[in-house]
Amino acid sequence: MGLFDWFRQSKKTTNIATMDMVVFIVGPSGSGKSRFLDILLQNPNVRWATNSQKQAGTTDVHAERCSFEGIPNDVVLVDTPSFYTYEGPDGEETVKKWMDSWCTNQCKKAGILYMHNIASNPFDANLKISKHLRAFRRTLPRNFAINTVHVVPTMAFGAKLPAERVDASITALRGQAVGVDATMSTIPDERPEMAWDIVQELLNVRTETEVGGRAPINSRCLLKRRLVFRECLQ
């Protein structure tokens, strides 16, 4: 059963509540943060606050409060602007102001989905996972805890890389993920169900409808799967 069956409603978020589960989507410019959120919320009943999709490359924080069948807690999805940009304002100050306004309470669970475009310059120090996570953590209110980090490698639309470059980029990125104690998936396809699988892996939750049904995707499967996504069976 896919995201379309789980999704109940989406609305512009207010203050982060103590029982919320929060997913911060973090990563460099062009890593696919906004695209991932768009895919996750592809449902006829989903409406943005402005009745239009968030534009890629925005310098604002965009958050959606969602409810899913089988999960008693609201899930707040937070798409953050990029840090260490070469053009336009850096997102750290923007995120800090948003945090100070909306994250006044510790939530039930919070995690980071870190997006990284493997077609980007592998020698650019500003694209290191650890550097972006340090910047993000500086925006957090005191005593606001992040429970887990999950790295999602992406491929820019239209990018064509030789297999050797893809393998080398994935290996290097996995090394960075291990260095920050993060789990990591392979390159996702553009199905809403796959995006929701990644969110569930981050939050370590499964909907009631999945119990006894399709096996959950675990970290070991995610790390061992090939670049072409297949169903992960246990």
Mean pLDDT: 77
Reported for the largest beta sheet, the result is: 7 strands, mixed
Proportion of residues in β-strands: 15-25%
Q: Would you tell me the structural class of the helices and strands? A: alpha/beta
Q: Give helix % range.
A: 25-40%
Low-confidence stretches: 1-9, 43-57, 206-234
Order of helices and strands: HEEHEEHEHEHEHH
**DSSP E strands, number:** 7
Count of helical stretches: 7
**Morphology:** globular
- The spatial strand order of the largest sheet comes to 1-3-4-2-5-6-7
Task: Describe what you observe in this structure.
The chain is of the alpha/beta class. 30% of the residues lie in helices and 18% in strands. The chain is built from 7 helices and 7 strands; from the N terminus they run αββαββαβαβαβαα. The chain has a 7-stranded mixed beta sheet with strand order 1-3-4-2-5-6-7, sandwiched between helices. Helix 5 links the parallel strand 6 (148-154) and strand 7. The longest helix has 17 residues, at 163-179.
